[in-house]
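Subject: Predicted fold for DUF2631 domain-containing protein, 98 residues

User T.R. writes:
Posting the sequence so we have a shared reference for the thread.
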Amino acid sequence: MRMTDRDDLPGADQRAGATPDEPGATTPEDAPAAPPVHERWWWTGTFRAVLGGVVVGYQWPVLTSGEATVWNWVLAAVGAAIVVVGAWLVLSAYRRRG
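User M.O. replies:
I've generated the structure tokens; pasting them so everyone works from the same file.
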């Protein structure tokens, strides 16, 4: 079964560059695997900071229009707190990694 129309072209299985038969060439099995994104030092804090920024950004038009209720302000404050916690997590993870 063909996956795409390009599978039947000559050389579809070959990649450009060094082949495993050449001296010094590495295969994907030889290359060190990068850790998954969620295990990298910056991921948790950055994700939280961005999430908090999105919450604040979503509330911003209502807050600046003068039509905001107390709950809009509460939600924006929670988003801002999440941004601060996320930034603190990134900074502390950066200090621990080095």
